[in-house]
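For consistency, the fold was encoded as tokens, as this record shows:
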Amino acid sequence: MNEREVKAIISLLDDPDTEIFNQLEQRLVTFGPEVIPLLEENWESSFDPLSQSRIENIIHKIQFDQIKYDLQFWDLKNNDDLLEGLLIINRYQYPNLDENNVLLTISELKRNAWFQLMYDMSPLEKVKLLNNIIFREFGLSGNTTNYHDPQNSFIHKVLETKRGNPISLSCIYSIIAQQLDIPIYGINLPKHFIVAYMEDMEQPPLFYINAFNRGQIMHQNDIHSFLKQLNLPSSEEYTMPCTNKAIIKRVLRNLITAYENIGNPQKREEIDILLKIIED
């Protein structure tokens, strides 16, 4: 990147000719994230609302292109890392966030559980320990007052406010559990995402856990009854662990619904683009 060239292009962003501006914008977008500090510097020193607005849009386009690339790469090469997938989604709304804060919080919760974890604990005892650490001591809980808030889908916001939706709480729960070698995985239950304790991945779950209800234990008959109410079969699609890719798809679908509810078509369309990347 030629800094002098970039600064020269940025200085022309107040050009009233739309065609010229579009060419300048496209040129800046092709430079990628490296150009963002220079754009931000110009925004701070500018007193022209048009130029500032154009800079904001260019920065967003560059960041959105990077998120699309990161998500595509995750899907192809790194989809065994659920936390990374959630952090990529988080970057959509919070591109400048220090992600170490998320990693440190997860590590602290893991460490607090590890100190009390004993080798001879039964599966139920391990889950009770996790429930105590995550829900009682840390204070994570379901956001029942603003269930469809988009913030419920961004992991750093969930950890910060300690409020989330079923899938975000389930993700945090299973990430911590798996880091402790406790076999708890996501279950793509319709209308309500939960997790399950898997002693054997080839066999049905030992039991299910409702993270949205502070780690309530559920059994096979509870799940079958729930599916029956929805007129759905008790198939493995709904009763056995799903992939991380399926989880990220559902997080994105939740965000699409959330942005529809608050009347933000631009964000809804952009999230739909992200969803299509991993659906394809």
Q: What stands out?
A: Residues 49-77 form the longest helix (29 residues). The mean pLDDT is 94.
